[in-house]
What does this fold into?
Amino acid sequence: MNPNSAVKRVGLFTSGGDSPGMNAAIRAVVRSCIYYDLDIYGIRRGYAGMIEGDIFRMNSRSVSGIIQRGGTILKSARSMEFKTKEGRQKAFDNISKHDIDSMVVIGGDGSFRGAQAFEAEHGVKMVGVPGTIDNDLFGTDYTIGYDTATNTAVDAIDKIKDTADAHDRLFFVEVMGRDAGFIALKTGISCGAEAIMIPEDNMKLDELIDILKKGRPSKNSSIVVVAEGDNLGGAFVIAEKVKEQFQQYETKVTILGHLQRGGSPSCFDRVLASRLGLAAVEALMAGKSGIMVGQVHSDIIQTPLEQATKHGPRINQDLLRLAKIISI
Ligand code: F6P
It folds into this structure.
């Protein structure tokens, strides 16, 4: 036990959609706790495991050989029961059996909303580490997994481009992002997409058809990158509507889906996860709670969880403008 720390026993879990780099963050949290002489407990399957009491003591070797692995050794889940007061009470009873007085939650906006409710009701100190491929949290330039996921998507779209070109086809490629277009915007620019459809931009069907028609006389193939959460619907819906206007070309749809969430994390994500893992433990030791640690302009900063989850239209308008100018 560390007499200089505001907390003594730390619980650690991953929650919501997994992201590449979560293991690197787990490793950093566990090793930082051990370095500072704090007891560290892992909780499997996020809030669901907390409700079931799936809690175990971790040590330095529990996290050996995981920094390069995708997924999460602690497993992840989305728990409906934790959204209820009764569910949170069960979770609290279980962590109390282990005298856990503080928690590091690695996840996205839903996980952080759960953390806020838990802290408010039971006074457990909660610090968030941003782990989601969506990059849709305020208070960090990058969330853990976003860099890897965008590189995975770029690799896949490059391959689609080859076959699109060979057959003179129009391809709609859907990338993840239920509420946000960060993955679509970055990958669309990187792959030279003809158009990028994201919820924050609200592009109308007429505008899309116009862009594609203007390019068609000189271009053989075209790629449209669609964010899963686009306001016009997913890639299948949009392709169906656009198809009639381009009868001389075959229209195809590819949904990249969950392959974007897997794979070995990039160097960037491993370093980001390691930095944020240490920062989370040091924040708890300093008595901080109800905050998320993030990286902005290479500095580690802290943001109240409430602000982190209220994602405003943070899409970089310069990137959007760039995408439109250079896709002609
Ligand atoms: O974690 C975020 C995310 O990958 C979103 O981009 C996507 O909409 C969602 O998770 C998919 O969730 P699930 O794996 O539960 O289908």
About this structure: The chain has a mean pLDDT of 95.
